[in-house]
Amino acid sequence: MTNLNYDYIIVGAGAAGLQLALVMNQDPFFAKHNILILEKQDKQVNDKRWSFWEKGTGQWDDLVYKSWSTSRFYGPLNKELFFDLNPYAYKSLQSIDFYTFAQKEISKSKNMSWLTGDVSQIIQKDGSVVVSTSEKEYSCSHCFDSRITLDWNKEKKKHVTLWQHFKGWTIEFENETFNPNEFVMMDFRHRHHDSTSFIYVLPINKSQALIEFTLFTKDVFKSSEEYDPYLKNYISKYISSDHYSIIDIEEGRIPMTNFPFHKDNQKNITKIGTAGSWVRPSTGYSFKYIEKYVSQIIQNIKSNKRIDHHLLSRKTRWLDSVLLEVLHNENHLGPSIFESQYSKNSMEQIFKFLDGETSIVEDIKMISKFEKLPFLKGALRHLFR
Prior knowledge:
The protein is an alpha/beta fold. It has helices at residues 15-26, 95-107, 151-155, 228-239, 287-302, 314-329, 334-344, 347-354, 360-367, 372-384; strands spanning 3-11, 35-39, 49-55, 66-68, 70-74, 80-84, 88-94, 112-116, 119-125, 128-133, 137-145, 161-173, 182-187, 197-203, 208-217, 244-257, 269-271.
């Protein structure tokens, strides 16, 4: 086996690995460090859509294919809420555009390499890390690992876990049907039995939109076809009975869990992305949060601190755990919880809360507007768990 030495190795070219690589590539501090990205796929497929809220302009605006300035929410009893998102905008980008941009930027780098390799093992020993693939063995001073730990399958039952699972159709009508400046954050009028499930609508232009059926439940559907009746019925009942074409399909499953993926961090190995507990358990959102984690990592490296120092917020993880306890044990309460959240707070307050940027006083004000008994029971369950 050939030994190849690097200062840093990033395992996985997903949203987390590539955002970290791009920041390192742009920072003069890392110009003299050799950095390797190992990814088992060629990243030539548009396999995801990332959406996020953001104030003003952002670093990904050139890649954003659509943004929205207003939003609607529909509660389970037809309660309709309208939101002007100012000073925020809701933005969406295609993963293939992000991958293509990252590959182009990294190809210009003199000290960064991107290789194809399926990593089988990562071992920390003697102050360094050995990363093994089926063909070669690499070593580095520090490894950023996006692979989910095998302990997840063994131990997840000990922790609270829901699945955010979804299927979306990008559809096109012959006539102008949508308001392209307004999206539907959640529509609970059309649900699967008595579960926390809703429709999400992202208009692309006046005739095209992504219509997605999303569930936050303990179990996922057994087949892809189970989502289809909900999409069909919603479109005919709430959008239009006119003929439409399905031009794209997306599906996914995201773990909403307080499982401590980050427990596998070591002095010379830092877990990133979902594998590092970077996905917000209460929402499933991750793309925008990654910026914060990457910024903290860079700061820690420059300050010669342990790389995962102050990376995760205990307060945020506790709040998420309590909500997960509620939805796990009383899933039927989800629609009323989210209706309470959206009807009693401004969108700016909600985004700030979801971004983990609120003070404890602001958190208490937000939580006090919910029905108290389910959250008290959820907090107690989490405490005893």
